[in-house]
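Practice set, problem 2.
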Amino acid sequence: MQTDGFHSRPGESGNVLFFILLGVVLIGLVTAAIRSGGGEGANIDREQAIIAASQVREFAALAEGGVIQILQNGISESDIRFAHPDAPSDYGSISSTPARQLFDRSGGGVEYRKPPAGANDGSRWEFYGKSSLPQVGSASRGDLIAVLPAVAAGVCERLNAMNGLDPATQPEDPGTCLNAGSAGRFKDGVLYEDSSPNTADDTTFSIKPALEACVECADGKFYFYHVLIAR
């Protein structure tokens, strides 16, 4: 008499093979997920850099629009001011002739913003008239620019990419540096430099005129600038 206890029923061998193959596939997927674990963080970092760069450019564009508004109201370019309670005190008081203030409703009507998180080391926006940027206006006159100091390298890279600059060439300003420091802030008594303005290295800019870019200075730090008035 035969018993079925020692013989496979039809289809059982096929089912076993299926489950073995399924196990191999699942192990492969788990292994791949473990190996790519660092990639997810890198993607998040890239996304954060893109967001920060976009916010930086947005504020710079708003500042330029506010400057245009002040000029259209009949204020001289030398009388434009950048005072705000959260800005460095060198820029003066926002209550002083509001019509010429970028961050007052009576003037440029621009909302003052601190740099977005992760965009730089926390330094506030600066406004200078000491540099002549590549093929912007006259080479012998300083342009009015907004500057964000100490920009994070990844954000700097994204800023330049958004402006179509060649990623293989980092724009440089090896001279005085467009970040003129506290002594060069655009304010009463310290305005444009028209005798010997600072100039960036024209050869390092793949697109000109360079109305906006993130440059590397001799201190090894990155600085983003946006031209508010070309002169």
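Problem 2, part (b): a different protein.
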Amino acid sequence: AARRLGHTALEWDNLIASTRLHARRVIQVYLVLTITGILALWLAGENLYSALLHALAGISTGGFSIHDNSLAGLGGWTAQAVLMLLSFTGAISLILYHPAYFRNRHEYTGYLELKGLLAAAVAAVFLLALCLWAAGEMPWQDILLHAPLVAVSAQTGAGFTSTPIGEMDAASKFVLILSMAIGGGMGSTAGGIKILRLLLLLRLLQLVIRRTCMPSHAVLEPRLGRHRLAGREIEHALLIIMLFIIVILLSWFPFLAMGYAPLDSLFEVVSATATVGLSTGVTAPELPLFLKGVLCLDMLLGRLEIVALVLVLYPWTWFGKRSR
């Protein structure tokens, strides 16, 4: 029921014939990526213990590190870049790694989503570097190092950082907020509204603009790539986006009411709801218990994409209720 109501998988049902086959392929891909990540970090100079834990945190876009300064504690730029690459592989839909997909890749919107994820990551790196340069608080050598690492971490939902986020200017924080809110691909370990839903929203906006320049009797079907969008798919995508925005706004208000800085508070809420983990410093041990509870709820809602938890709380989905 959650999948029907809240997930726009488009043609994935045609790509993966059964849930069991889907699960088997995802597990195989996940294991291969994890083992590859461990070996890559080990070859990059990390010891086996560090390579193991950072690979697990990177593929799952968990963001936990054995160093209290996160990415900055790794052996060097090579290990940092490898870890960000691992995080990026986790933000790609795990279905896309299976060879069966690439036999007819142009027939599926997953290929378009992958290009969208690459474009979003490149745009995030460029905008963050531009904002940091305009602020004039960081040498350009440091910008070239930190902008790609932090931007990719935000876009993929990994949550690693190589520099304190709280020391960045307002424009840089806003760029990271947008990246975290967009997130990665459908069927990946990343959070956010997902690239596919953003592409669908942009496509609908384009159709609205084009229809204003066309005769009233003209027919223009909504399509994403070669896939014709059905009304139900559009409703599902817009529903998730709307719920995501509502949760963020409702969670932001308590922080504002308790006197926290608006932009930093919004950053924390989006980071929690998109299951990223980056922080400006607001989330700390001394944070009031109520606000900690708000962020915990945001993380749960973001991981389940809101709809699943709503269905659990909806009485008509309980045992003995649906039969009526």
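Answer key, part (b): The chain is about 60% helix and 0% strand. Residues 109-135 form the longest helix (27 residues).
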